[in-house]
Amino acid sequence: MNETNATLATLMQKRGEGLTELQISGNSQLNADGLASIAAHCTKLISLRLEDCDQLTPSGLAPLSRIESLQTLSLNFG
């Protein structure tokens, strides 16, 4: 999935509530705004895997701390 953060926000608003697992790979546009959308709408998320998302920074991951159900966070910036 290589979508803009606005498109991701719309998708998460519509479908995020029921997600327990999410994997996003090779999205060069995903940033803290996109992660904030995930955190706001994916409240049942247990596992999140982010691979090769170039725009993510350590501070940009902060919104994910709001997902109380999150048990597994996998990051690969290879």
Report on the structure:
The chain is of the alpha/beta class and 78 residues long. The protein has two helices and three strands. A three-stranded parallel beta sheet has the order 1-2-3, with no helix packed on it. Helix 2 (32-41) links the parallel strand 1 and strand 2.
Main sheet specs: 3 strands, parallel
**What Rg, in angstroms, do the CA atoms define?**
11 Å
| Order of secondary-structure elements | HEHEE
Question: Termini, distance in Å?
Answer: 17 Å
Can you count the beta strands? 3
Strand content: 15-25%
Q: Structural class, judged by helices and strands?
A: alpha/beta
Contiguous helical run count: 2
Strand arrangement across the biggest beta sheet:
1-2-3
Low-confidence segments, ≥5 residues, pLDDT <50? none
Helix content: 25-40%
Shape type: globular
Mean pLDDT: 92
Q: TL;DR of this structure?
A:
The chain is α/β, with parallel strands linked by helices and 78 residues long.
Quick tags:
three-stranded parallel sheet; single chain; 2 helices; 27% helix; 3 strands; 78 residues; 19% strand
Q: Which helices and strands, and how do they pair?
A:
Elements: H1 5-15, E1 21-25, H2 32-41, E2 47-51, E3 72-76
